[in-house]
């Protein structure tokens, strides 16, 4: 389980996932810095963060190998949140090499009003596009996504999404690049 670790400088959290939860990193898994992005697929602000902040982080820190980036889908907004959080777990487990690309596509598609985004048909089409086994990917995930969200909410003190942690320290304003950069070693 996730546990809070007290530090003399600031309150840090142990960002380890719930036991046996699949971990997928974007970037060098041996990087000195770890960034955890907690989000809801149906959250407008999460998509905005991915569009406005993430490209800078990716080019300056992830691609050069300074930061390993991982995500945790939460369930806060609506039914699509739950469907996509379940999908997220299974893609991490069964299609880890494609996870980051699929994650980014779902986030980008969330802003497209012409799609039936988040619906069962949207998910089916997405899986077909990536040539993934629908029965496998749409099977019951290992963890009930709402319970998983509650575990992270409780352990990490998540009040809103997007929430960002760097090396166990919560970023007060995830849209503030100066604050993000100050927490990267």
TrEMBL record:
Record-linked Pfam families: Thioredoxin_4
Thioredoxin-like fold domain: residues covered: 24-185
Top-level taxon of origin: Bacteria
InterPro entries to which the protein is assigned, alphabetical: Thioredoxin-like_fold, Thioredoxin-like_sf
Protein name (database record): Thioredoxin-like fold domain-containing protein
Transmembrane segments: none
Residue ranges that the Swiss-Prot or TrEMBL entry lists as coiled coil: none
């Amino acid at each position: 389980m996730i546990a809070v670790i007290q530090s003399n400088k600031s309150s840090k959290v142990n960002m380890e996932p719930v036991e046996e939860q699949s971990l997928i990193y974007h970037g060098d898994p041996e990087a000195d810095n770890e960034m955890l992005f907690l989000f809801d697929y149906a959250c407008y602000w999460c998509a905005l963060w991915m569009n406005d902040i993430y490209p800078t982080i990716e080019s300056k820190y992830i691609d050069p190998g300074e930061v390993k980036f991982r995500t945790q889908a939460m369930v806060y907004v609506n039914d699509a949140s739950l469907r996509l959080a379940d999908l997220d777990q299974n893609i991490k487990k069964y299609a880890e090499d494609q996870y980051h690309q699929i994650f980014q596509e779902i986030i980008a598609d969330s802003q497209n009003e012409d799609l039936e985004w988040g619906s069962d048909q949207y998910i089916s089409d997405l899986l077909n596009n990536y040539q993934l086994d629908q029965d496998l990917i749409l099977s019951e995930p290992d963890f009930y996504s709402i319970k998983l969200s509650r575990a992270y909410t409780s352990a990490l003190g998540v009040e809103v999404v997007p929430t960002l942690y760097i090396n166990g320290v919560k970023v007060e304003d995830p849209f503030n690049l100066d604050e993000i950069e100050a927490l990267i070693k």
